[in-house]
Structure formats: structure tokens, C-alpha cells
Amino acid sequence: MVKEFKLPDVGEGLTEADIVAWHVKPGDLVEDGQIIVEIETAKAVVELPCPWDGTVARLLAEEGQTVEVGVPIIAVEVGTSDSAERAEVAAPASAESASDDEAGAHSILVGYGVKASSTTRRARRTAAGRPETAEVPTAPEEPVEPPEVPAEPAARSQSKPTLAKPPVRKLAKDLGISLAALAGSGPDGSITRDDVQRAAGAGTPARSAESGNGSRTATSAPALQASGGEERIAVRGVRKHMAAAMVSSAFTAPHVTEFLQVDVTETMAALRRVRELPEFAELRVSPLLFVARALLVAVARHPLVNSSWDAAAEEIVVKHYVNLGIAVAAERGLIVPNVKHADALTLPELARALQVLTETGRAGKATPADLAGGTITITNVGVFGVDAGTPILTPGETAILAFGQVKDTPWVVDGELAVRKACTLSLSFDHRIVDGELGSAVLRDVGSMLTDPLRILAWS
User: Fold this and answer.
1) What is the pTM of this model?
2) pLDDT grade for 140, boundaries at 50, 70 and 90
3) Architecture of the domain whose range is 237-459
4) Does residue 341 carry a catalytic annotation?
């Protein structure tokens, strides 16, 4: 019996997700709870487990494909006694003994997959690398690119299929570069964007292509395209969500940003002493820890800054807990995971939570739960060598604090000019909720605590 696993809603209101990577292929035995695929939602990359024991029959979605919630993405044969036998039949075979069906199954590994309708399948290749024209659909539901013919079919036929993500394949096509002629430098020998661009610059032989005026032969033109021209990047997943959220925030909440330059010499000295304490021995303690603690104390002194605007109810919702968001520049785009109930943590607990949060976020492993429910955010622009900025509010929040780089700065101390450690703080807030007086008070309090860290203890 074949069962189809449909893309579930892994977050509140999820409507679609992108297939990032399959962990199985047709013929593989799978167990209930085994991770079979990674998907990218509007917020994070999520691993999905298989709900049954059985044998993978078909992959119904390609890597890189956007799939709506409720659409089948994989078919699994369950409840049969010959599952193991089927797995052996579908196992990789040599080029001499591989059947046409096996070749079609293995082609899914390179990101082509099988769609829900059999008429949308791409043309498969024989062991010699020639496309089987009989399998090209006569009336496809969507445009299907003609199969690529490897430049060196004899050598390719004995190796694994070409591994490359859809954007890399499109770049190679635009530059006229044959992926079959390249040696990949990515994971598992996959071909990266840099591999394609290097090949274009080195004048690697390109595929011949047909134009409306007849045939054309590849020349040195790809090298010129590599150094100029245009590049298109698909806006999907996290980046798509980030763009929509920033536009919504910027044009919904009236932003005001205030700046304050502060002397953080004493904070940097306290930071060095904290690093020597046994409680912080296994932690990477940065100035962000003191900035976070100062903001948490300021929120306790001015609760209205930790709130949200409920337009439907025409109410301001004040949160008497702090889920502290930390903006993280991940590979897939900007995300803002948050430390739940950060206001209730001790300083070592807060340091550990911040470290885990940033490491998880940068690795692309933040879960939808990590990204939901934030109440106020810090963005550390100083790590990029930037002094200040005008941060955009995280949707649903009232304030965001930007922390600039700490650097040696001329400063007047007791009437004398001295070199001190200084940074610039930028606080953006929703002017519907926070007026200039309250925004200034919050920013001033944070600055005062970073100038004299003992105030953190006095005001807590």
C-alpha cells in the first residue's frame, strides 16, 4: 500500500515551504520518525520526519521547489512484506546493469525529483548520458528545459550524477557552461556558484544552444558575461518573509530613532573580569551580554516600551515578561530568534542562552518556536564595524536597540581629554506607543548602565 506524505503546517499559518534537501531516495527503507527532508519555511529551516515504516516509492517534489501546505511531497510503500526486497532492487547499480527505471530514480538526487503528475517529469538519461526522447512530455503542464548533454559522457557515465542546486544550474545555463564538465568544490562534490563563475572566466567549453535565428556555437562570450551582466536571486523562504515583514513594519508603525554616544570603558573592564569567573569559563562573553542586561533593566523601569499595538482591539498590550530578540544575519537571510523570559535569567544563564541562540541562528537551525513571540529586540551592528544605524522594528514589537562598534574615542573626563572606549546606541520605537520623552528615558538608562555597570545592580 502506497501512502503519500503531505507537506504539514509546521508553524502558525504556514501556507508554503521550499524543499531544501532530501535525505532519502527511491528504494530507501525508512522508519517512523526518521528525518527524510529539510524544508525552508518563511521563518526557518525545519527537518521533517517520516510518519511510517516502509520503502520510499517516489519523491514528489524537487529540491528548490516551492510546495503549498497539503500537497504530497513523498510516496512511501508501507505494510508490505517485501519492502527489503524492493530496497535491494532499487539500490544503486553499475552503469552496465542499471535499468531505465533505476536511472530515473537516481536522477532525483540531482534536484529534479518527480512531480505529482507523471506528465511533468523531466527526460531521463541512459547510462551513456543520452536523453530518452520518448519520456519528454508532449503536453507539459509547465515549461520543461531540454536535457543537458554532458561534454564528456564516457567519463560521466561511471560517476555520480551532477549535484547542483537550481540557482546554480540556472547560472550555468545563462553563462552557457556545461555542469557535466565541472568538478564541484561543494559538499559531496556538488557544484557551487563559484565553480561556475570560475569556469566562465577560464573559458570552459560551453553548450551549443539554439536561437530563433538558427544555431549558434559557444564562444568566449561567457567570460564577458561573468565579469558583468546581471544575476537574479530567487526571493524565497526566510528572505521572502524578512522582506515582507520589513516593508509591513516600516509602513505600518511610525518609526522614530534616537542616538546616544556613551563611554563604555568601565563596561569593557567589567567584561574582562566576568570572563575570569568560573561561572563563565565555558562561555564566550561579549559586550552584548551587558547591553542585553542593561536593556532588560530599562524595560523593568519603563514597561510600556515592551509592548505591542493591537489595531483590531484598539489597545496597547503591555508584556510583563521579556522575550529578548537578537537579530542574526544567517546565510538564508536576517532572522530574529529570541530568548524566552530573558528577564528571569541570571547573568550566566543569559550569557549561555545568547550564545546558543546566535550559534543556532547562524547555523540555520533556529526553529519556528525560537522565532515566535519576541517582545523587544537588540541588533548588534558593531560586529560589522558599523557605528550606528536606524533599525526597523521587528513586526509586533515597539522598540529595537542597535549597538554600534566599541572603539577608542577622544573623550573629556574630569575636564581633561582622554582616550576612552565608546560606542553609539540607536533606539528605534513605535511613536504610536512611545513618545519622545519615554524613548529618551529608555535610551538614557541603557547608556547610563553601560557607562557605570554598577547601576545594573542598583536598578535591578
Assistant:
1) 0.58
2) very low
3) 2-Layer Sandwich (3.30)
4) no
